[in-house]
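Amino acid chain:
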Amino acid sequence: MLFETIVIVIYSASLLMIFAYALSQLNLLFNYLSNKKLEITHDLLDTSNPDEVPFVTIQLPVYNEKYVMERLLNNMALMDYPKDRFEIQVLDDSTDESVDTTSDQIKALQKTGLDIQHVMRSDRSGFKAGALKEGLKEARGEFIAIFDADFLPKSDWLRATIPHFKKPNIGVVQTRWSHLNRDFSILTQVQAFALDAHFTLEQVGRNTKGHFINFNGTAGVWRKSCILDAGNWEGDTLTEDLDLSYRAQLKDWQFKYLEHVETPAELPVAISAARSQQFRWNKGGAENFRKMVRQVLQSQSISNKTKFHGVLHLLNSTMFLNVLIVAILSIPMLYIKNEYAHLKTYFIVMSFFIVSTLIFFSCYWVMYKNTYGGGVNNFARFTVMFFAFFSIAMGFSFHNSIAVIEGHIGKRSEFVRTPKFNLSSLKESWKSNVYLKKNISPNVIIEGILMLYFGFGLYSAFTVGDQGGDFGLFPFHLMLFLGFGFVFFKSLSSKL
């Protein structure tokens, strides 16, 4: 019974963690809905008054982005803001031929009167954080707007964001990402679905009640004095944006999230690109939990509720590890359930995963309905997309769990940026992208084995016990089988 006890304890602990996270999401949903009922007004800077137009530095941290640089710089040149009140820093750590083409384009833009500079370093120390920190030394702006290479803000973007810095304690204004290529494939649709939930439910739900949110690394503006007061950019985690966000808010700087201001960007279309992005985000989240959780819990200036949401926010990526544990142990639990009849009550009480799934389903439906409208047809489309998202997210759970474990134990790795594609020029020939990894990760083989493992779980539903089977976990195992199968075959086919 020792083995069974160990399995039950670990399984139950992971279920409870997932359930706690689901409850936090439900609370954020209530916050989101209550915020929608309020008409919130606050003082704004009057950018039509020359005396109230602050100087802004736009920072573009880039590294080997030959497919999107021309598009990025041409878009920035269209920014509708007084030309004498902003500058652009192209923080270029590139090591390929894009350096020369970028330099040529910058020189051409300079001749039009645009204040744009090509800033290069001799090494990539600190990666993106190091580039931003280096650029900050020469930045003349009171405010620092940051865009990754695949983001295309609208021309009025600065006029829509800068006015919200009227109050001197506002340190960051963050905007919502939208997606240039949402409908390219099921992979991009699932990524968009997940990001939409973050940029509605989570960011609004936290921000409206004064809980900590994060600058998302791009499509936002920092007050320069806030960056410096919080200790400047640090490159000791893979998510320098989350790190600086928490350090700033622990020093009582306020963040403002603008759901209504969209900033279009490109989603990764290749699964290898999505894998590298997921790995960086999830490892960085775990690294920041390791770095920041004690400061959050010991802070005397924030409420216990903000601490609760802050801890679960920092543990966000760790949910993948809990999902993987529950998934792997669910098959032994299926046999334990049918072997020990006296545990029946326990299994009824521990149906947290079903409850958690229903909570996630309800929260995401509200977000989807607010964006795309209600009705039977939209609900049907949402239901299909939700289960596709849930399945593929679980299919990524092993890959992301490796990232989480590395983050928690402090294993360092370099910042691997996500390859960009610019589909308007490459269309569906994305496999020719020179930045894509050519080798197959060993993790893919394990994901294939896990697909077979959960196929065994489906088979077990028909054979376990002496009552003609047990189908309680069949939907769960089906989603796991499909999710790991999708990730496995998609990863293999992308190399062919």
The longest helix spans residues 2-36. Strands lie at 56-62, 86-92, 116-120, 143-146, 170-179, 220-223, 254-265. The first strand starts at residue 56 and ends at 62.
